[in-house]
Amino acid sequence: AFPLIFMDRYTSKSSLTQLVTKKLLPAPILGLMSAFTVAVVRSPEFENGIEVMDRNGKVVGLSQKAGEKAVRETALSRAVLFGTTFFLPAVLTYFVERAKFAKTPRALASVRMFAITSVLAGMLPVSLSMFPQCGEIKRADLEPEILSSTEETELFYNRGI
């Protein structure tokens, strides 16, 4: 909505500005907002940390650095999911409009909905598999209190969804 409000406020009517604000700009903004939402919702993991485990599954301690890494990975995967899901159907719809494949607005809306559904269905497993569910973090990257409690070189954490 932000690009459309910006365009209406400054009444820019050039075709290039309309193309950028209506077709291209919303996808990265939606991706950024998705990442921001994940960061805000999971902000307690930044502050409190998440459990870090050794190879046997024994909890070694709470790590803010592991929490930060988990939230960053999840935010990136959501940005890719929703940014791509918004961008690719817009590009496809643009080409369908130019080629005049869809003769009526209803047909164009159907093509757009099919494209959104298809891209979302395809990108969901890609987004969820970008990073492993059980993330690894090197011992040297953790807090001093965790360093003193274990001799393992790699520790593990649950990234979350």
From TrEMBL:
Stated membrane topology is: Multi-pass membrane protein
Q: Which organism is it from?
A: Corythaixoides concolor (Grey go-away-bird)
The residue ranges crossing the membrane are 75-96, 108-131
Q: Which top-rank group of organisms is this from?
A: Eukaryota
Keywords on record: Amino-acid transport, Membrane, Mitochondrion, Transmembrane, Transmembrane helix, Transport
UniProt entry tagged with the keyword Glycoprotein: no
Q: Quick one: a GO cellular component term?
A: mitochondrial inner membrane
List the subcellular locations.
Mitochondrion membrane
Supply the source organism's classification.
Answer: Eukaryota, Metazoa, Chordata, Craniata, Vertebrata
Name by which UniProt lists this protein: SFXN4 protein
Q: Which family does it belong to?
A: Belongs to the sideroflexin family.
Record flagged with keyword Thylakoid: no
Gene name linked to the record: Sfxn4
Pfam families reported for this sequence? SFXNs
One GO molecular-function entry: monoatomic ion transmembrane transporter activity
Gene Ontology BP annotations: amino acid transport; mitochondrial transmembrane transport
